């Protein structure tokens, strides 16, 4: 179970969980934690061993390629972000080769690519100028590679 999984299930911030999981160095005193935090972390029921549905990180090369395909087709990052339920910055980072991303996001990107690659963005409500701008930027990016 990752620190993020613990934080999500306990309703705590991931930063706090990571601080709790750090081992103390020599000469450092034990950390005091609030009783409510301890109860939140210790009260997490552990699930039976199973294959995770989608937690975890994977390489982003495939998702990056799929998002670049959508950009070449004229789909702006903001429109894709709305459909994926993430920020436009996340879409741009994945498209520009963020090293890893969550498996569930990679699966959503694959599904979105399958849905949108054959559609014209302008017919789907994207302004023609925005679609042309995205296509031109994708062409410049492909030429610079």
Query: How many domains comprise the coordinates?
Result: 2
Structural class: mainly alpha
Mean pLDDT: 81
Alpha plus pi helix count: 8
Low-confidence stretches: none
Order of helices and strands: HHHEHHHEHH
Distance between the termini: 38 Å
Write up what this structure looks like.
With 145 residues, the protein is mainly alpha-helical. The chain folds into 2 domains: 3-42, no CATH class; 57-144. It has 8 helices and 2 strands; from the N terminus they run αααβαααβαα. The chain has helices at 3-10, 14-21, 35-42, 61-73, 77-84, 88-95, 103-116, 128-144, and strands at residues 57-59, 100-102. The protein has a two-stranded antiparallel ribbon with strand order 1-2. The chain is elongated, with a radius of gyration of 21 Å.
Features:
4% strand, mainly alpha, elongated, 145 residues
Give a concise summary.
The protein is built from eight helices and two strands, in the order H-H-H-E-H-H-H-E-H-H. It has 145 residues and is mainly α. The chain is elongated and about 60 Å long.
